[in-house]
Specification:
alpha/beta, Rossmann fold, seven-stranded parallel beta sheet, two-stranded parallel ribbon, 13 strands, 16% strand, binds NADP nicotinamide-adenine-dinucleotide phosphate
Length: 322
């Protein structure tokens, strides 16, 4: 399979690239933006700004993929709210460009999306539950989902949620903690391993409950969507369990053999993030994996299993599971 992966140097994208190329032997091409991976990454790259529609069309034509996985995002809430035009073009515009390019190549388009298309009062939302985003990121993702599904001949949406795991190309995370679950387990493990305490944010105005996933397992589900010609529509790429932030933190301590007494609870640090409190964040974004189970014949792992695999990936430097 020939896979064109956008955002392949990002956190989730680096897992998609690794699972597709190393585990499944796909030939992977990534447009890269500001960060260029060092050495021989195991996939081909080219400098490309995905906002440049002409360059995108030429690049996809040249690579001639079987599948396009679109995981690139403008990962900057402040920039999104300040420059709405840039935000729209980055999310919806790039999806529209890639839908056209995918059709010309007769490729399937898979858009990586998020549990934040739901409003936080829809616990257990499944793949058919109508989204109701409460902030600009969720709106842009919902609009991108519709664009992918309605514009491309063959399209799928892969919603990932509360993602933990390895970033295979970079050592540090962009944030220690935010209003979502991203980076939370990594930050807890890094702090406690260094002998430092960690204060888990708990408040009514942040994402308190979600369905955690492991980035490499999300990538595996995305591979199955790519490999199955009949797999189109919406899929939920997350684990089988829904947990609260502190419950996840405690489970991480158990699985990584860390001292749970080093955990504390605190209010979000609005000064550090500049985000919490500035826009609405969905409270409970737990997901159901109903259609994904049926269509892909897939059984999502529980949260302990996903954390155990993350521990293995951290210690071995290689993919775990499957
Ligand atoms: N992380 C999570 O917890 C989480 C949760 C739910 C959903 N998701 C979804 O997962 C996907 C990936 O998120 P992530 O956290 O992995 O993001 P990330 O680490 O911030 O990666 C974003 C990627 O997009 C690239 N990019 C940004 N602007 C670009 C442009 N104009 N042209 C080309 N490339 C550009 C970045 O390259 P440069 O760095 O070089 O600019 C980077 O490779 C997104 O669709 C997101 O909505 C993530």
């Amino acid at each position: 399979m020939r896979a064109y992966v956008t955002g392949g140097t990002g956190f989730v994208g680096s897992n998609i690239v690794k699972v597709f190329s190393e585990r499944h032997g796909a030939t992977v091409h990534c447009p890269v933006h500001r960060f260029v991976p060092a050495g021989t990454p195991g996939f081909s790259t080219e400098r490309l700004d995905l906002l440049d529609d002409g360059a995108v069309q030429a690049s996809v034509d040249e690579f001639d993929p079987d599948v396009i996985v679109h995981s690139m995002i403008l990962n900057d809430f402040a920039a999104m709210y300040t420059d709405r035009d840039l935000a729209w073009r980055s999310y919806v515009g790039t999806t529209e460009s890639l839908a056209r390019a995918a059709d010309r190549a007769e490729a399937k388009l898979i858009l990586v999306s998020t549990d934040w298309v739901f409003d936080g009062t829809q616990p257990g939302a499944d793949e058919d539950t109508p989204p109701n985003p409460v902030n600009l990121y969720g709106v842009l993702k919902m609009a991108s989902e519709r664009t992918a599904l309605l514009s491309a001949e063959r399209a799928a949406v892969a919603r990932v949620s509360a993602v933990s795991g390895m970033h295979w190309l970079r050592d540090s995370t962009p944030r220690v903690q935010d209003g979502g679950f991203g980076y939370l387990v990594t930050s807890i493990v890094e702090a406690l391993e260094a002998g430092e305490a960690f204060a888990v944010w708990e408040a009514d105005n942040i994402n308190m409950v979600a369905s955690p996933s492991l980035a490499s397992e999300c990538a595996e589900v995305i591979w199955r969507i790519a490999a199955d010609a009949s797999a189109t529509g919406v899929f939920h790429c997350c684990g089988a369990d829904s947990v609260g932030r502190m419950e996840l933190a405690r489970l991480a301590c158990e699985v990584f053999d860390l001292d749970v007494a080093m955990l504390a609870s605190t209010a979000p640090d609005t000064g550090a993030t500049g985000a919490v409190g500035e826009f609405p964040i969905p409270y409970d974004t737990s997901l159901a994996v109903r259609r994904t189970r049926e269509v892909l014949n897939y059984e999502p792992p529980g949260v302990r299993e996903l954390l155990a695999r993350f521990r293995t990936e951290r210690s071995t430097g290689d993919l775990a599971g499957r």
